[in-house]
Amino acid sequence: IVFMKEKLSLLIISALKDLGLPEVPFVVEHPEDLSHGDFATNVAMVLSKQVGKNPKELADALVAIFEKEKPEGVEHFSVAGPGFINVTMAPSFFHE
């Protein structure tokens, strides 16, 4: 799980660079509510305050990049609420 958090963090940093956006402090965490996926990040929420853009639009742009560069073990990414990004792992991830 720690390895996947690091992998997701690197994916986020790479996507920010691809979009020409600054790096900001963000978290990748395992949400208590499993309906929010296996991991979640607040990067779009934090970034929106710094760059003055809509967090949901930023999250949608990031998810589009994440889906193209999806790490092994990730089933899908989704935008939730005002701009949180949820990550759902493939069942095979938990078997390894």
Q: Outline, from the CA principal axes?
A: globular
Radius of gyration: 13 Å
The low-confidence runs, each spanning 5 or more residues with pLDDT under 50, are none
Give the N-to-C terminal Cα separation: 11 Å
Count up the helices. Answer: 4
Class per helix and strand makeup: alpha+beta
- DSSP strand content: 15-25%
| Topology pattern, helix = H, strand = E | HEEHHEEH
Main sheet makeup: 4 strands, antiparallel
In helices, the fraction of residues equals 40-55%
Please give the order of strands in the largest beta sheet.
1-2-4-3
Q: How many E-type strands?
A: 4
Mean pLDDT: 94
Architecture overview:
By secondary structure, the protein is of the alpha+beta class. Helices cover 47% and strands 19% of the residues. Strands 1-2-4-3 form a 4-stranded antiparallel β-sheet. Strand 3 and strand 4 form a beta hairpin. Helix 2 crosses helix 3. The radius of gyration is 13 Å and the shape is globular. The model has no long low-confidence stretch (mean pLDDT 94).
